Amino acid sequence: MLRFEVSVDDLLRSRFALSPAMDLCFLLGSLAGRDRPLPRAWATRLLPAFERLRHESELNAVLALYTPQGGPDFVAPPPRGLNQTWADDLAMIRATPLEAARHEFATTATGRSARDPRVRAVLDATDAVSRIAEAMNRAWHELLAPDWPQLRAICERDVVHRVGVIGEHGWATAVESLHPSITWQAGGIEIGHFPDVGTVRLAGDGLLLIPSVFVRNIAAHTEDPWPRTLIYPARGTAALWGEQETVPRPDALTALVGRARARLLLALDAPASTSHLARSLAMAPGAVGDHLAILMRAGLLVRARSGRSVLYRRTPLGEALVAGSG
Q1: Three-class SS state of 121
Q2: What pLDDT digit, counting tens, does each position of 125-152 carry?
Q3: CA distances in angstroms from 247 to 136, 143, 185, 322, listed in the order given
């Protein structure tokens, strides 16, 4: 079991962030057969490009850096907040000093794949960092970038939902809602599915919470240079992967309001903006706006401004219709 000791100061300093580089690493691990398998449709679409990149770029050197316990920190640097972009991550990867990278190579590149002559030539080169960064950049643009707006929108909506839970029910409920293995016990966060890691004190620095579409269980960072971090499955991932057994069936709702409006109503299990809905559902923003206006006039939605965004949420009538459709 892993336990984080949490103080009042830690709660005040806890925050959310997104990590494009971390999600790229998770995706590469899935395609390499190391992490959570991708749904068949995604694997069929991405595996040919993944195998081509293994031959055309230094991607095998990136993959060789990973062990069952994890990988080097410099290829997935700690994110600074919710506005983190791949360009931010790539700049930090490229800025890694060679000696720091080689120190991580020594502890992570220990498997059989790291002894491949082509991989070894990359890791031993004086330009190893730039070659690894370029391989990751190609992988980003060819494997993840086309889907990232939709995936990012799912993660952003997850954060909106979690913040709402904090406001209505408090931090303990919000943290326990991240995953069934998490409980709040006697002033600490306990994650049951971990091996016996022990107790980690946050020491007033707070906890970094990162939603991801590629993790099934909880992942954690407990050592520098990362802040103490929990990475958890974002809400809405099941619908993205087509795992229909966990998603309400909208058949009756579709017959009543139409397929597009039914999808929007079902997606609004947490407040969301027009742009978030458009990206997460892969719909045109103008069409989303038109459908939302009709649903509002029907009394199924209301909207309210939050900062610079306008967020839509279901009314009690909208909630009753969605509940009935299940």
Answers
A1: helix
A2: 999 999 999 999 999 999 999 999 889 9
A3: 34, 26, 31, 11
